[in-house]
Structures are given as structure tokens and as C-alpha cells.
Design a protein that fits this description.
about 160 residues, alpha+beta, Aminopeptidase, seven-stranded mixed beta sheet, 7 strands
């Protein structure tokens, strides 16, 4: 599995990956905040406001996440440890056929390594506070829950990992 920074040429594959992950969550847990469909325009916008990392295997794109120093819209920073240089992990997805094989954990390990190099003081993220949310996954990977709050009537759990 090779990691690289996404380019505009990857927008279609990124869109397909996110849409496949969303479709699997919808199939498994029903319609929820994860049920939306992304577009290539959205993938390109994500690349402009963050650094998008992609992981490829011989089969193609299998995972992605993005890191940004810009606070995402759904995060209330008052729940987090007061630090100078946080980095936010957003838009993580793993191909549904590749889930439960340790790839998500590898993504988080790479995110931590990259954040240390930036340098960042912590990685912050949010997850949907629902059965289809990834809160338990983040806990198992060493992230600490720091709060819960709704955003646009959708409950979220906030997590951080101090670096």
C-alpha cells in the first residue's frame, strides 16, 4: 500500500471511494448523516482547503484522509485542550471491501506521523454520535473523547490525540 498526496487527477477516484463508503454505511445502518453523495467538485474543494492523502494498492485507491489546520465547520473548539497548533483530520474513508484489515489504523498512524512533522500539538476530529459513526474505532486507536455536541441537529463526538 503506497501513500501519496492526492492531485486533481484523483478527484473521480476519491469521489467513488467516499460514495462507496457512504453507501455501505447506509446499507448497514440505514439512512443517516453519512448517506450523502459526494461530487468531483467537492473532492477538488477538499484538496484546496486541506492536504488529502490517498492510499493505493494494485487494485486502486483503497483509503484516504485529509489534514488541515483550518477548523472544520462541525467542530466546537471549546471542547478541546487549549493548544497553539492543532491539526484536524477530516474526510477519512476506507474502501468497504478493504475494511477490517487494519487499513484505517494505518491511516491514523500516518496522520500522526505527518502531524508530528508539521509540527502540530494534537490531532482533532469529530465522528457522528450514532451506531454508524466511527467513535469506537477512534477510541481503539488511542483518541480521547473530549466532548459531545450537536451540529445542525446531528450529534457529534469530538476526539483528540495530543502529540
Amino acid at each position: 500500500m503506497n501513500m501519496e498526496v492526492a492531485t486533481p487527477a484523483d478527484a473521480a477516484d476519491l469521489t467513488s471511494l467516499h460514495n462507496a463508503a457512504n453507501a455501505r454505511l447506509t446499507l448497514q445502518y440505514g439512512k443517516g448523516p453519512w448517506s450523502g453523495q459526494g461530487t468531483e467538485k467537492g473532492a477538488l474543494s477538499l484538496m484546496r482547503r486541506s492536504t488529502v492523502y490517498i492510499f493505493r494498492s494494485r487494485k486502486g485507491l483503497i483509503a484516504t484522509f485529509a489534514l488541515t489546520t483550518r477548523k472544520p465547520w462541525a467542530i466546537d473548539k471549546t471542547y478541546f485542550t487549549a493548544i497553539e497548533h492543532p491539526v484536524y483530520l477530516i474526510a477519512m474513508a476506507v474502501d468497504p471491501d478493504q475494511q477490517h484489515k487494519g487499513i484505517g489504523r494505518q491511516c491514523l498512524e500516518e496522520a500522526r506521523r505527518i502531524a508530528k512533522e508539521w509540527p502540530a500539538d494534537a490531532i482533532r476530529l469529530d465522528a457522528f454520535d450514532a451506531e454508524g459513526g466511527a467513535g469506537e474505532f477512534y477510541r481503539k486507536c488511542g483518541f480521547r473523547e473530549v466532548g459531545r455536541a450537536p451540529y445542525r441537529n446531528t450529534p457529534h463526538i469530538y476526539f483528540e490525540m495530543l502529540i
